[in-house]
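Try this one yourself first.
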């Protein structure tokens, strides 16, 4: 069963700003630095584990473009807050996913449905997966309140994170030639 992690795969969380002072804040790209994605093509099934304390700020965005982001101390504060306050990593150190169904999409992609355990709650989610070159890229929208997470806010709510965040995972795509030659 192939296992993918930070050495050959990528997992990022995209957050978006909201509130009356949102213009003073940034949308963020956070990289998950501790994760494993197990893919069983014979099943097919997908199982994944993500370290709740392993998010690192890698980019700030404004209107979809990279901009100068927070300094080192502010990045550390964002990372600490994400782990301790938002995800409560001390009590829930791992985020887990287990697929329950995999089905083709009309657009050529695949829907991977499963159960996500996050911050002490388990909810069904569906990731849309598409092949992009030599990668399989899956994206899922997570509504934080569904998992008991109160979206981060500052300055009495004048700056806050929108309730919906997006998680994107990219793993190496299997070689269709080698897969068919093993059959």
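Now uncover the answer:
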């Amino acid at each position: 069963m192939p296992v993918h992690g930070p050495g050959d795969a990528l997992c990022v969380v995209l957050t978006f700003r909201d509130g009356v002072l949102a213009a003073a804040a940034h949308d963020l790209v956070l990289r998950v630095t501790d994760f494993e994605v197990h893919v069983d093509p014979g099943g097919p099934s997908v199982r994944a584990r993500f370290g709740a304390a392993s998010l690192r700020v890698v980019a700030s965005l404004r209107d979809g473009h990279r901009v100068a982001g927070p300094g080192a101390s502010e990045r550390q504060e964002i990372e600490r807050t994400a782990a301790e306050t938002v995800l409560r990593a001390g009590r829930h150190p791992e985020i887990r996913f287990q697929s329950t169904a995999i089905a083709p999409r009309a657009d050529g992609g695949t829907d991977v449905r499963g159960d996500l355990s996050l911050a002490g709650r388990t909810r069904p989610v569906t990731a849309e997966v598409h092949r992009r070159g030599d990668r399989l890229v899956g994206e899922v929208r997570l509504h934080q309140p569904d998992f008991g997470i109160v979206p981060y806010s500052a300055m009495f709510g004048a700056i806050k994170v929108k309730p919906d965040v997006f998680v994107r995972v990219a793993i190496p795509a299997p070689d269709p030639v080698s897969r068919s030659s093993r059959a």
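Discussion: The two ends are 15 Å apart (CA to CA). The chain is about 10% helix and 50% strand.
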